[in-house]
Amino acid sequence: MSDCMLFSRNRFLIRLGWSVLLILGSSAPVLATSVSEEVPKGGVELGISEYTAIGNKGKVDNPVTALDKDKTKKSTTDHTKLKELQGPFNSGPEVTKACLGCHNTAGHQFIKNKHWTWRFDDPITGQKLGKSVLVNNFCTNARGNEGMCAQCHAGFGMKDSNYDFSNEENIDCLVCHDATGKYYKTPPTKGNKACSVMFEGLKPINWTNVAQHVRLPARSNCGTCHFFGGGGDNVKHGDLSSVLFHPPRDVDVHMSEQGENFACIICHVGEGHDWAGSRYIMIAKDEKEHAKPKPGMERETATCESCHGDKPHPTTVRGLKQNDHVDRVACESCHIPAFARGGVATKVDWDWRTAGRLRNGEGYKEEGYKQGNGEWRHTYKSIKGSFKYDENVKPLYRWFNGVMRYTTIDTKFDPSKPVEINYFSGDPADPDSRIWPFKRMHTVQPYDKGNNTLVYMHLWGDDDAAFWGNYDFAKAIKVGMEKNGIPYSGEYGFIDSYSYWPINHMVAPKEQALACEECHSKDGRLKNLDNFYMPGRDAPRWLDILGILLVLGTLAGVLGHGLLRVILSRRNS
Is 173 exposed, middle or buried (0-12, 13-18, 19+ CB in 10 A)? Predict the structure, then answer.
């Protein structure tokens, strides 16, 4: 979230705790050696360090926030000189009140968006979606755990689902507009023993200073939450990690300072504090009426075609054939050859069954995966179970028309098969479908064996039922369901689940785009996509060769015929 929340502070806290344990004679294992420091390989759990080690690790970025050709335009307001912002301020709501005094329609706009309501009513499927109701296969549910999860709510004081969503003074203006890098958010309620050291030692926020230094949202603002969704850096999406604060050009040509240096809002265009782009409803195939104007200008949507058009490749023989793919293949499928690039791994497997193991009566963690940038990731935590990671991952490819359906808390399913948390609409016969890249997440998570539904778990809280402290699935599920009025049989089990995350970020330079044979081959990336014919994959090799010879022969015949006409016309003349 800020320089205050850099890894160095958290490592100091972790090392201090380890030192105390060793002095007191703890039986924690010895420390293993990494590239540049010692990292614990198991031991007593000192806190949910994934949630504290977040925020921009380096300098605050200064990205392009509007595609305006007039580079001489400057802001007309110096916020440091506004008398309304001279303070003193003692809290976030006091700052928000001052902001809304001038920006007097911003509050009315903001309380309608998904960042505030955590709700979305899908106009196509009719499903009620959003963090406030959905079950996922990471930390499973935000509902009932708002005391922790609301650390990434764009408001102040969201302790439970009874939050007053009409109170505009609880809007957090600074989390999106802070330009200092010194601002941070903490959970609105206290956690249990396992979470007791999460934010110790942080320097108090200088509310007046951050109020006076604001700007349009940069990557460091958006990434504070979106890069760390699901419980840590790049855990959830796979293509959103801390490397995007300052990405090299070969990781993302759009966000790199050596490339376009775009802020997120260039593509996720916001009008009236509502931003384009959502995994709940997507534009899988752009249409001409949606392709204008460009991102950064007033518009409702943002897609690749918005800037690059529906014929993005040069008018060469190869380029014309590539343009012929645009209506059936998403740009991302060729131009994002892999995700989780740049040295930050993504979580691909999570097993809740192993959660709750103790050592000497205490929870513990194990760091068993060293990712590309040399940092260690947890492969086991008592509060969450066992994890697996991967980097430079080839996506899963599926036909997709932008419509995704979800397994909700009241969806009944067949427990003999894995549960799909979300599942696709789209097929080759659908003219609105294209081949899209996805990350697939596998989890073994709790479910209600009597009702064959997913469950809400009470994870966070300073009470004897909170799983993050007492490690009792039976209590955590019972309380999680009862608090939210959900029927529960009283018997839980574990079930395999899958979720699918569309890959849109980490666009590689064009020279790193996929070669034709990556897909057009027997064992290529699209080998598991059925019900359509693809040259190089589906026909016998002799038939492909014959087809190529026929094309070349036809081309030779046309050229030869043209050449003869030229020669004969010259003779006649």
Answer: buried
Prior bond of 88 cis (ω within 30°): yes
Q: Over the stretch 131-153, which tens digit does the pLDDT of each residue have?
A: 999 999 999 999 999 999 999 99
pLDDT digits (tens, 9 = 90+) for 120-134: 999 999 999 999 999
The number of residues making up the chain comes to: 573
Contacts of 103 (CB under 8 A, 6+ apart): none
Q: Tokens at residue 97, please?
A: 């009140």
Q: What is the per-residue burial (b if ≥16 Cβ within 10 Å, else e) of 223-233?
A: bbbbbbbbbbb
As given in the structure block, the two tokens for residue 108 are 């009315």
Q: Tell me if 327 sits within 8 A of 309, measured CB to CB.
A: no
Could you tell me the pTM of the whole model? 0.85
Do residues 330 and 342 lie in contact, with contact meaning Cβ atoms separated by under 8 Å? no
Give the helix, strand, coil percentages of the chain, each rounded to 5: 30, 15, 55
Does 291 have pLDDT greater than 50? yes
| Predicted local confidence at residue 57, as pLDDT | 64
Strand partners, 275: 270
User: Which residues are 448's β-sheet partners?
Assistant: 453, 492
Pairing of strands 404-406, 422-424: antiparallel
Q: Where are the alpha helices (DSSP H) in 114-255?
A: 114-117, 146-149, 174-177, 207-212, 219-226
- Its sign, for the CA torsion 470, 475, 481, 482, is negative
pLDDT in tens, 4-32: 333 333 433 333 333 333 333 333 332 23
Looking only at the bridges linking them, the beta strands covering 376-381 and 385-390 are antiparallel
Residue-wise DSSP of 528-560:
T--SS--TTTSS-HHHHHHHHHHHHHHHHHHHH
Beta strands 31-33 and 38-40 are antiparallel
Rounded-to-integer distance, Cα 258 and Cα 268, Å? 21
DSSP 329: B
State the burial class of residue 318 (Cβ atoms within 10 Å of its Cβ: 0-12, 13-18, 19+): exposed
Whether the Cβ atoms of residue 134 and residue 144 lie closer than 8 Å to each other: no
Pairing relationship of beta strands 492-502 and 434-448 according to DSSP bridges: antiparallel
31's tokens: 């420390």
Question: What dihedral do alpha carbons 435, 436, 437, 439 form, nearest 10°?
Answer: -120
CA 454-455-461 angle, to 5 degrees, is 155
Maximum Cα interatomic distance, the chain, rounded to a whole number of Å:
106
Task: Give the separation between CA 312 and CA 326, rounded to whole angstroms.
Answer: 9
Q: Report pLDDT digits (tens) over 30-88.
A: 223 233 334 444 445 556 666 666 666 678 999 988 877 655 567 788 999 999 999 99
* Bridge partners for 32 per DSSP: 39
CA atoms of 182 and 564, how far apart (whole Å): 76
Q: Where does residue 289 rank: exposed (0-12), middle (13-18), buried (19+ CB within 10 A)?
A: exposed
Give the containing element (helix H, strand E) for 22.
Answer: helix 7-23
| Calpha distance 330→283 (Å, rounded) | 10
Q: In whole angstroms, what is the distance from residue 286 CA to residue 280 CA?
A: 17
Instruction: Evaluate whether 428 touches 400 at the Cβ level (below 8 Å).
Output: no
